Every structure is written in C-alpha cells, then in structure tokens.
Amino acid sequence: MHLTSLLAIAVAAPSVHAGMLRFACGQLVSERLDPLVNPGLNPSPHMHQIVGGNAFNATMSPNSDIPSQATCTTCTFTEDFSNYWTAMLYFRARNGTFKRVPIMANEYIEAANGGMTVYYLSPDDKNVKVTVPKPGFRMLAGVQSLRQADSKFVNLYRCYDELGFKPNPMGMATTDTKDLPKRHCAGGIRVNTFFPTCWDGKNLDSPDHQSHVSYTTGALGLNGTCPSTHPVMIPQIFIETIWDTGKFPKEEWPTDGSQPFVFSQGDPTGFGHHADYIFGWQGDGLQRAMDAKCDNTFGKMCLELKNTTIPQANKCSQPQKAVEDLDSWIPTLPGNMPITYS
Ligand SMILES: *[C@@H]1O[C@H](CO)[C@@H](O)[C@H](O)[C@H]1NC(C)=O
Ligand SMILES: *[C@@H]1O[C@H](CO)[C@@H](O)[C@H](O)[C@H]1NC(C)=O
Ligand SMILES: *[C@@H]1O[C@H](CO)[C@@H](O)[C@H](O)[C@H]1NC(C)=O
Ligand SMILES: *[C@@H]1O[C@H](CO)[C@@H](O)[C@H](O)[C@H]1NC(C)=O
Question: Which of 44, 59, 200, 289 counts the most CB atoms within 10 A of its CB?
C-alpha cells in the first residue's frame, strides 16, 4: 500500500468513519514469545507486549479452538479472544543501560491497564460488506528489519507534548511522523500500525505471514480495490499504543540530543515497528457488527457484541512463561538484540 493510502486511512479513522469499533485491550503479559513468527520457541528473539485472550502461548496451532481454550480476555468486547502484539519500546540511558518504557492507557479509556486500543473499521458505503476471517487466521503487519521509509508499509507516530494527549488534532496532523519522533514527548508517543484489508480467502496463514493478505490498490483504504489475487475484503484492523516517554526526562537524553528510544528488535528509528494478529473471535458477533456498521465511539453501543467494563477486563492477565525482568535497568536489550541503523 502506498503511503498516501495509509495517511488517508488515518484521516478517516478517528470517529468520522461510519462503522468504527474502538476498544481497550489492556496488557495480558509482556514476554519473549511469538507464536506467529517463532512458534514453539521460548524465549523468542525479542520482547513483546501482548493483549487479548489468555489462550496466548508459545505455540498456537491454526487448528486450535482459541475461544474455548481462553477463559478471559483483556479486551472489553468479551467475545474477542484474539491476540495482538507488538515489539516493546526501551529507553537507552547515557551510561548505555536500558529500561522498558511503560505503556499508557488511551484517551476515553484511561482506566485500562496499559495495553493497546484496537480498531475494526467497516466500509462507509452501506452496500459494501467485509468478510470476517475464519478461525485459525493470522497475519503480520510491518517489517521488523526496516530502518527507512518504505512505500509498502508505514506506521504513524504522534508526539504528545503534554499529558492529557495534547495536542491531539482529529485525523492526520502535519507533525505526525513515519518514524519515532525526534523531540522530547512529555505526554507520550502514540503509534498506529495498520493491518492489510484484503485476503486470498483460502489460506489462514502463509510462510512469511503476509503473502496471504494484501493492502488495497486504487482508492484509499477500505474504499480501495482488493487485487484479484486477494479478492476478499476484511475489516480494517489497526492498533494504537501510547508509550509513556515523559517518564524519561530530557536531561537524561544523549548529550548530542538524538532521541534515546529503541524498539526491542534493535530498531532506533521506528520504521521497523510491526504488529502480529491471531484471530480469536467467538461466534459470529464480529461479522454481525461489521454488517451492521457498528460504531461504539463516544458512548454509543454496538448491540451485536457483548461488552464489559474496563476494570473487569483488567482482571485478565497471564504470568510470564518466558521470564524477563520488566523493571530494572538492563545492560543490553533482552535477548542481546543488537541495535541496527540500516
Ligand atoms: C471512503 O469514501 C467516503 C465517501 O467518499 C469518505 O467519506 C471516506 O473518508 C473514505 N474512506 C477512506 C478510508 O478513504
Ligand atoms: C501453553 O502450552 C503448554 C504446553 O503445551 C501447556 O501446558 C499450557 O497449559 C498452555 N498454557 C495456556 C495458557 O494455554
Ligand atoms: C545508568 O543510568 C540510569 C539513568 O540515569 C541510572 O538510573 C542507572 O542507575 C545507571 N546505571 C549504572 C550502572 O550506572
Ligand atoms: C458496554 O459499553 C457501554 C458503552 O460504552 C457501557 O455504557 C456499558 O456499561 C457497557 N456494558 C457493560 C456490561 O459493561
């Protein structure tokens, strides 16, 4: 997908979309497991922060019945036992040691236990329906090794100068960036990662976890056209994380003024930010919600889906199966991931 397409999605996304589900999924666990890219490997190469159902595990077979294996979810839509995860952000101090950057809860869902905000969009056009993927479906957005702008994929970063999500203009702002903001963001750094919206309709996964899905061509986002190789349009899923970068005062930044944050796979640019998704919705509620163009923003209800309160969803969590220190200053990134600039 071209950059302009993604930027247009971002413009459309905040509340001006006809059908938009926006919901809190608090932290489930932060650990080095990756059942999509490194199934069965404990620990996986780099750290992740994970939200969603508590069937999350080192191995999650496409044949497993995730909604029946899970007993809770950190998401406020209680039929969503999917898992969503991204790399973890670290602060690198002047003395070379690292500390995990905590995650902040998002605007309007401030009670959430960190984690992420998950969005599912259906097309504005009442006559255009999207198909919810089948159980077993999974996909990967982004390329962890990217260190420069790419025409196929972008993340969008927003620097909040002050706590309270300020400034927070509707849609895309000229100050939003495709890489980690280079200035001090006292109110946090928000990052949006967009999943593809076209599926081949057959394969639940592919060897690179990407080639069974595609971004649209032609018009923008869900208004675009799915290529003939990937004819089935699926909901626009995107996730939003806010890193509490204000915890690290500007006085402790590198003396040359360069930004000190680095993603757990060794990415100091942010271009290599990526996100993983394992579908785990129970029943057909999500399909009905998409067909009904459900919008739960600003206190509206989606009658097709069951929801719970944020404090209730916060009760769901998992112990680490790949044990990693989350609170100390550490001499290297977990897994000794080297920092790479290209
Ligand atoms: C899709 O088209 C509608 C109607 O023209 C427009 O309001 C909306 O913003 C478009 N969505 C995207 C993602 O471009
Ligand atoms: C994770 O997998 C292990 C090994 O198969 C199993 O013993 C354990 O019960 C699983 N945990 C969860 C939460 O599903
Ligand atoms: C490294 O710097 C951090 C931040 O200033 C500090 O908290 C930590 O104690 C230092 N660690 C060592 C080993 O000096
Ligand atoms: C479901 O969401 C609505 C809208 O946010 C809220 O008013 C309601 O209390 C929630 N229901 C439950 C059971 O938490």
Answer: 289
Torsion of CA 325, 320, 77, 284, to 10 degrees: 140
Distance of CA 146 to the CA centre of its chain: 17
Q: What is the distance between the alpha carbons of residues 109 and 113, in angstroms, rounded to a whole number?
A: 10
Q: Taking a C-beta distance cutoff of 8 angstroms, is the pair 199, 33 a contact?
A: no
Does ligand 3 lie within 6 Å of residue 93's CB atom?
A: yes
Would you state the pLDDT for residue 156?
A: 93
Task: For ligand 3, atom 14, name the residue with the nearest CA.
Answer: 95
Report which of 202, 179, 280 is spatially closest to residue 237, judged by C-alpha positions: 280
CB 62 within 8 A of CB 205: yes
pLDDT at 126: 85
Residue-wise pLDDT tens digits, 19-58: 899 999 999 999 999 999 999 999 999 999 999 999 999 9
Ligand 2 centroid to residue 36 C-alpha, Å: 16
Peptide bond into 167 cis (omega under 30): yes
* Ligand 3 within 6 A of CB of 4: no
Give the other-Cβ count within 10 Å of 121's Cβ. Answer: 25
Which residues, at least 6 apart from 15, have a Cβ–Cβ distance to it below 8 Å? 170, 297, 298
Low-confidence ranges of the chain (pLDDT < 50): 1-16
C-alpha–C-alpha distance, residues 315 and 303, integer Å: 24
In the reported structure, the alpha carbon of residue 83 is separated from the centroid of ligand 2 by a whole-number distance in angstroms of 15
pLDDT at res. 281? 98
88 within ligand 2 shell (Cβ under 6 A): no
40 phi-psi bin (left φ>0, alpha ψ -120 to 50, beta other): left
Q: What is the pLDDT of residue 9?
A: 45
